[in-house]
Amino acid sequence: MKIIIAIIILLIIHFQYRIWVGDGSVAEINAYQQRLDDLKKQAEEKRERNEALYAEVLDLRKGQEAIEERARNELGMIKEDETFFHVLE
Predict the structure, then answer these.
(1) Which end of the chain is less enclosed by CB atoms within 10 A, N or C?
(2) pLDDT tier at 43, thresholds 50, 70, 90
(3) By the 8 A CB rule, do 76 and 83 touch?
(4) Which are the contacts of 18, defined by CB distance < 8 A and separation ≥ 6?
(5) Could you tell me the pTM of the whole model?
(6) Percentage of the chain with pLDDT > 70?
């Protein structure tokens, strides 16, 4: 009877060790879950960025206004017969 109790206690100790410290432990599962949450957040941010870029590409393909706006803001271009004023502060 003592042998059976000793075996049961050893099994309980072994399983407790595996739950808290061993492969697939609670700490390891929590670390994997945190990493998964971080990756999901990154994927969502990249998806939103891709959608914004896709919308901008469609706008540039379809409309001249977007091209004109970009040329004015980024390249400093002006239309013919317009006067450019540079204000110094």
Answers:
(1) C
(2) very high
(3) no
(4) 24, 25
(5) 0.53
(6) 100
